[in-house]
Amino acid sequence: MSIIETQKLTKIYGSGSTAVTALDKVSFSIQPGEFVAVMGPSGCGKSTLLHLLGGLDRPSDGKVLIEGTSIADMSDDRLTELRRRKIGFVFQFFNLIPVLTAVENAALPVTLDGVKPADAKAKAAKWLERFGLGDRLYSRPDQLSGGQQQRVAVARALVAEPALILADEPTGNLDTRAGDEIAGLLSQVAKEYGRTVIMVTHDPRIAAYSDRIIFLKDGKIIDETLLASDNGENATQVAEKMKAMSD
């Protein structure tokens, strides 16, 4: 069974003559452990799609199904529980709390869900150590590089052991080297830890780390591409597709 599926997913902002269709009958399915990138020109609906998949916004029409269950009719409380336990979010800006240490930031989702602080920190430390931050558990965000802060954010997204990770331009605030490290980390999250990762990006080099790319334009899927294992060839292929879309 698909971990996540959309059926004619549509989002319209406004009404009448001022209505704007951000997504137009978008349908796809993603399997457990798959790493999928979503690409397209600015304003094509990428972030809108991610917000709908994560239950941060509600569709105008169509459905989002997570593990076969439609989230459209869930109450706000059920949606909040779903996001807390089934979905991890990673954003362009790290959104770490400045006064908390790395391990306290990473532990926050399960701490808020009622897990004892010591147990929450132990779970967070496990993920931080996996991501090469075992020696920075007690560093505050201002003591970490941008790449390290984003690693903390990825650990925070995974601490509740969600099945699905949604990443919105996770490398957009990083230099090339740190961006590649985070993209590789997200690939590792899918391949080694069996999580499904859906990532919005504008960068062909970053998208090349994924297994499949969904291309959006004017709110519609215009292409889907399966990628090979060679990141260099992938990046060239993706860049050529992006150029063709903009012509």
Give a written overview of the molecule:
The protein is α/β, with parallel strands linked by helices and 247 residues long. It has a single domain (31-55, 74-246), classed as 3-Layer(aba) Sandwich (Rossmann fold), CATH 3.40.50.300. The protein is built from eight helices and ten strands. The protein has helices spanning 46-53, 76-86, 102-112, 117-130, 146-158, 176-191, 204-207, 231-246, and strands spanning 4-13, 20-30, 35-39, 61-66, 69-70, 87-91, 164-168, 196-200, 212-217, 220-226. A six-stranded mixed β-sheet has the order 6-7-8-3-9-10, sandwiched between helices. The radius of gyration is 18 Å and the shape is globular. The relative contact order is 0.18. The mean pLDDT is 90.
CATH superfamily descriptor: P-loop containing nucleotide triphosphate hydrolases
CATH class: Alpha Beta
Strand sequence of the main sheet, in spatial order? 6-7-8-3-9-10
The helix tally amounts to 8
**Helical proportion, percent range:** 25-40%
Low-confidence stretches: none
Structural class: alpha/beta
Shape field: globular
CATH topology-level fold name: Rossmann fold
The first-to-last residue Cα distance is: 37 Å
Instruction: Give the percentage of residues in beta strands.
Output: 25-35%
Provide the residue-averaged pLDDT.
Answer: 90
Topology:
Blueprint: E1 4-13, E2 20-30, E3 35-39, H1 46-53, E4 61-66, E5 69-70, H2 76-86, E6 87-91, H3 102-112, H4 117-130, H5 146-158, E7 164-168, H6 176-191, E8 196-200, H7 204-207, E9 212-217, E10 220-226, H8 231-246
Helix pairs in contact: 3-4, 3-5, 5-6
